[in-house]
Amino acid sequence: MTHPLVIKISNILAYVFLLSANIYSGLEGDKSGSPYHNSHETYITPAPFVFGVWGLIHLLFGGFVIYQFWDSANEVVVKVVHWHFVIIALLNTLWLTLWEHDYLILATIVVLFISGQISFVYHVLQKASFIPRNWADKLFIHAPFSLYHAWIVVILVLSIFAAVTPEKTDEGPILIVKIVVVIALFILKGLSIAYIEGFDSDIAGSIVIAWTLIGIFVEQQDPIIHWISLVLAILSIFHIVKGIYVLYRKSRSSGEHASLNP
């Protein structure tokens, strides 16, 4: 059996490797500083500010590789995260390399493998035996993996569109491209709702999708894509507010139950 310390040190090295690759790619890009936005722009590419989500994920994963040495994090790191974070970091770096060198079909395939890895960790973390026990669990384990789970869906959509649809031009999208984009927008909106309704009010994941829809609204000027993105973003925000309210009611109910059982 692999020693827990080996996994934790490997997580640190993988994090540094992934962070370095993204920083290098950002420095190599244009003034927007985003390797995701600078190339392969399509009619579903969101505005540059959306990619700030990746910076937040990096920040929280930085907290994760530190917090993993606390006793309270040992079980989840060893039993759930295990080698998955290392694999995710390596695959994400591979995706970025393929993306930048225009191997778009291969890049899409790599994202599918990343999705499988992060989905396994995400769904295990949703189980009752691994619910957050303190604020650090929520902030440095559940939050980054929830954000990343939603973010990799966004990256998958961008990769697929870059691989199979024309790049964005001043002439605007043809009808079939508009139809495909609108279908993808509804899928994203459905996923945003699923995070609230199906994943025990996962606010973080839903916010990532809603934020992306807002970014598409800002970036895309085709009237159909532009306004549908806004409407779906607003609907997603309503569900986020509902999810926050549900969590608030649960916390109040738990507090009242605890006060009745000294």
Automatic annotation (TrEMBL):
Keywords: Membrane, Transmembrane, Transmembrane helix. The chain crosses the membrane at residues 12-27, 47-69, 76-97, 103-125, 145-164, 176-196, 203-218, 224-248. The keyword Membrane applies. Signal peptide: none annotated. PANTHER family: SI:CH211-161H7.5-RELATED, XK-RELATED PROTEIN. This is Uncharacterized protein. The lineage of its organism: Eukaryota, Fungi, Fungi incertae sedis, Mucoromycota, Glomeromycotina.
